[in-house]
Structure formats: C-alpha cells, structure tokens
Amino acid sequence: MLGVKLVSENLVLEFGNTRWKLGSVDREYQVTLVGSGHDLAQLTDLILHVAPTFVGVASVAPPQTVLDLRHALADSGVELLEASPEQGFGITLCYVDPSRLGVDRWLTLLAARYHGANQAAQSHAIIDAGTAVTLDVLNANGHHRGGWIAPGFRLMQESLIQKSTRLRVSDNVPDAILGEGTEAAIHLGCQASLQGFAHTAIQSAEEALGSPPDCLWFTGGDSGLINKKALQIAAKTQVIERPNLVLEGLAQWLSFKSPPRSF
C-alpha cells in the first residue's frame, strides 16, 4: 500500500455493459459523479475539460472500447490506468485465477473493505443489481468467500420477449402486487425474482460467514427495485446503499497504484 491520497483532478471511469460513468475523486477518496452516457466523444470532452493526471478505468465492455478512448486521449497527457482483479490490497480472493473474477465485482469488494474511516475488521455481503445481479461475500479477515451471478432485472425481461413475439415490456412501473396485463405481470415477476435473489443471498451470506454480515451493501442501477424493508436483515447488520460503489473501489485502487504526489 503506497498511502497515496488522490487529488480532485483524478478521475475514475466505469465502462459497463450498456453505458459509462465518470467520477471525480477528492483527497478522502470520496467520489462525485461527473456524468454518464453512451457516447465516447462526450466522454472524451468531459475528460479533456477536467484535464486530469490519471484516469482509473474499470471495464466490462469490449476491449476495443478502452483502446478507442486511449486513441482519443493520445496527445492530451492524460494517463489511463486500467484495473484488473488481483490478489492483495487486504483481500484474499477465492478464485484460483483472479482474472476470471469480474473487475466490477472485485472493486466492490475493495470499496467495502476500505469504506470510510471505519476500517475495522468487518464482514460484508454485496448485492449489485445491474445487467447481472451479483452477490459477493467477504469475511472479517478479508477472505472472499465467493458469490453468485444471475440475470439482472432487464436481462430477465429481454430473455422473455426474445423467446416470444407475443410478449412486450413497458417502462411503466405497476402500482400493484399482481399484474392485470402482460407488461405489468412481466415487470412484477422479474422484480419478484430480484427480491427473491436478495432474500436468499442474505441467508446464504449468513450461513457462509457463520453469523450475519456486519455490512450489507446495495449498488447497481436496479437496486432501487429491491424492497429492503421487506428483507429479513439482522439487527446488527448495517445496510448501506451506494450507487457508485464500483467507482469508489476504483478510487481506492487508484490510490494504491498512482505515483505519490505532493500538495
């Protein structure tokens, strides 16, 4: 660990399956979202406007996406540092080959491990509801116990309509328990699956850890579809909702990797 504190000019960038998110990082590793979108030209303009020294990058998009950004920034003096899962940083991964673990999942582990000033030994369960919905469990000693991957809310909907020309989905959120039309039934059914994932994930995390997790994290664009009040969460467990948890983990990783700077 280099003990390097970031300055506000440094940025963190997440390339997801469907869009990018860009954040700025202050000296306490706190992330402020700068923007999000799909257009690479817009992203390039945002980065050039800030003119950072470093941009930490985490990508689950095709490799060409990062290559295109490097080309666009080639003459700017901005250095891209791309994160990839590895052993260390206070975390022991259960994967024999760390490169097989998604970088987004790894960074949420890193963010949870080093969250805020309270870095005492704590156990964590992390539910990330995005294109896929994932669970990762970290014990108090920093050992990754493993996790789950399942289709996310929108992927569940898409899999249904791709198999039938008679089915459609709608962006309207039903105000009901049971759907009175096909679109509402699909929405509520997929949401129930997401809810069931979270419910069973909490039980399984407790079983794997031997006790309820100290911290239960929710992140991802569809985490708002999970009714946290309906979940059976132990009284000792702190529930933390962090929409940009991957970016926060990336900021922490960048603090380890970027060269020391004086202020």
UniProtKB/TrEMBL annotation:
Enzyme's top EC category: transferase
Family: Belongs to the type III pantothenate kinase family.
Entry keywords, A to Z: ATP-binding, Coenzyme A biosynthesis, Cytoplasm, Kinase, Metal-binding, Nucleotide-binding, Potassium, Transferase
Binding-site positions, substrate: Y95, G102, V103, D104, R105, T182
GO MF terms, alphabetically ordered: ATP binding; metal ion binding; pantothenate kinase activity
Stored Pfam families: Pan_kinase
HAMAP family assigned: Pantothen_kinase_3 (MF_01274)
InterPro entries (alphabetical): ATPase_NBD, Type_III_PanK
EC id: 2.7.1.33
GO term, biological process aspect, one: coenzyme A biosynthetic process
Annotated cofactor note: A monovalent cation. Ammonium or potassium.
Cofactor(s) the record lists: K(+); NH4(+)
Pathway: Cofactor biosynthesis; coenzyme A biosynthesis; CoA from (R)-pantothenate: step 1/5
Compartments in which it is found: Cytoplasm
Active site positions, chain numbering: D104
Sites where the protein binds ATP: E14, F15, G16, N17, T18, R19, W20, K21, T131
Catalytic activity: (R)-pantothenate + ATP = (R)-4'-phosphopantothenate + ADP + H(+)
Gene expressing this chain: coaX
GO-annotated cellular components: cytoplasm
Binding residue positions for K(+): D128
Keyword Phosphoprotein: no
Record's subunit section: Homodimer.
Name of the protein: Type III pantothenate kinase
Domain of life: Bacteria
Purpose of the protein: Catalyzes the phosphorylation of pantothenate (Pan), the first step in CoA biosynthesis.
